[in-house]
From TrEMBL:
Signal peptide: none annotated. Pfam families: His_Phos_1 (PF00300). PANTHER family: BROAD-SPECIFICITY PHOSPHATASE YOR283W-RELATED, HISTIDINE PHOSPHATASE FAMILY PROTEIN. Substrate binds at R9, H10, G11, E12, T13, M14, F15, N16, R61. GO terms for cellular component: cytoplasm. This is Phosphoglycerate mutase family protein. It comes from Schleiferilactobacillus perolens DSM 12744. GO terms for molecular function: phosphatase activity.
Amino acid sequence: MTQTLYLMRHGETMFNQEHRVQGWVDSPLTEKGIRQAQIAGRYFTDNDITLGSAYCSTAERASDTLELVTDLPYHREKGLREWYFGRFEAQPEFLNPPLPYNDFFATYGGETQTQVTKRLSDTILHLMQHDHHRNILMVSHGGAIACFKRAWDQYAEHQYNGHFGNCSIMIFDFAEDKFSLKGAYIPDFTELDKEFSNR
């Protein structure tokens, strides 16, 4: 059986709004982030997708997002956490080096890109191998999801290299222990953005 993994980024947080580095540190969803999750959650109902199980990272921004998308019981998994940025945690984003980060953050007590990629791939592969539902939701983080996607690009049916904003969803087929990106759902928050920019 081919399963489908819906790998979703959390909604906007206070640190996202303040343009601060947010890895293992946490901050709450903003009002806008809550609304983003509610809008993105309609993707599943609008497309008659019945989720069988759900997982998220241990960050509250991820579990709060998941709870706004589905009322399924869920498991929190440390392996789905964001990249750990060491001393750069909670610092202004302008201090980040240009992409790709590679081993930069390891010098400051954080993870290398290889470590993040292996952690995400090992965790998600294990969860999918032991979960027999057809449609599975996992809520994680932007940097971590980007690392996971790159790890499986060789099997992708669909190429997506655009901006992966809050509450965007990567959609993977999973069969024979391989993940194949088959699409991405990027919610349209145009009206929401206008509403909050006018406040």
